[in-house]
Geranylgeranylglyceryl phosphate synthase (Vulcanisaeta distributa), 254 residues
Amino acid sequence: MGVKDYLLKRIAEVGAIHMTLLDPDKVTAKEFKELALMVQEYGSDALMVGGSLGISEGQLDEYLSAVKGSLKIPVILFPGSVANLSRYADAVFFLSVLNSADPYFIVGAQIQASVLLVKRFRNLEPISLAYIIVGDGGAVGYVSNARPIPYDRDDIALAYAYTAQLMGFDMIYLEAGSGAREPVRPRMVSRVKQLVSKPLIVGGGIRDPEKASELALAGADAIVTGTIVEEKPELIKDIIRAVHEGGMTRKKRA
Ligand SMILES: CC(C)=CCC/C(C)=C/CC/C(C)=C/CC/C(C)=C/COP(=O)(O)OP(=O)(O)O
Ligand SMILES: O=P(O)(O)OC[C@@H](O)CO
Ligand SMILES: [Mg+2]
């Protein structure tokens, strides 16, 4: 089974899945492996690997080849640039920053990456992703020259998300930015989810089980946490459980 189908299957089973984002720029290769195995043990459904700045192709190969074979959950690249590809991953989020003001981040980097995927990385499964930056925006908002959607403008988020669905993206990601002071608001998530049927990923600034559960209940199909596992790994077990419980509760209500 491909990675996209696996994610869809897990979403159907548990209502909402958890994905852990590890940034090779922030941890050593040894810590990377320990954290990846730890989140797998606690039930995280997939590992995303990326960062906005500071990762080289050689570093990705080194970190990922060291976990290949010992991880059962899929490794999905979350590239901050065309250089962030590695044959040791299972899939790549083929992302487009829909609300960037610079066409390079909407389609320019992607045409460069597409050639590499055909010529050098045939084993990577591309999963197209509409990446919509909200609120704080974090490093990714700055680097991709995004015009972040204000936290309270559900109507604009909805317009972007529905556009993404019409354009045929596999998945939609509402991103407040890594380490955001405030995550995307549950009301925005629930309004987008009411209209859009594509899997909805939510991330940025989610630091506790309560917020994770609230967003899963509001309609997030996948919750991403990154910074918390680097800073307070002891919290991750409860966050993963909260996502799955929130997802199951929403599924029962539906
Ligand atoms: C489609 C392919 C293969 C490449 C293009 C990739 C593009 C357009 C990237 C531009 C947008 C960008 C910078 C995305 C970064 C996504 C990401 C890894 C976010 C998480 O990083 P952060 O955590 O925000 O940043 P830190 O480095 O501060 O942790
Ligand atoms: O690091 P955090 O704040 O968990 O954000 C994760 C992810 O949404 C960033 O791309
Ligand atoms: Mg980060």
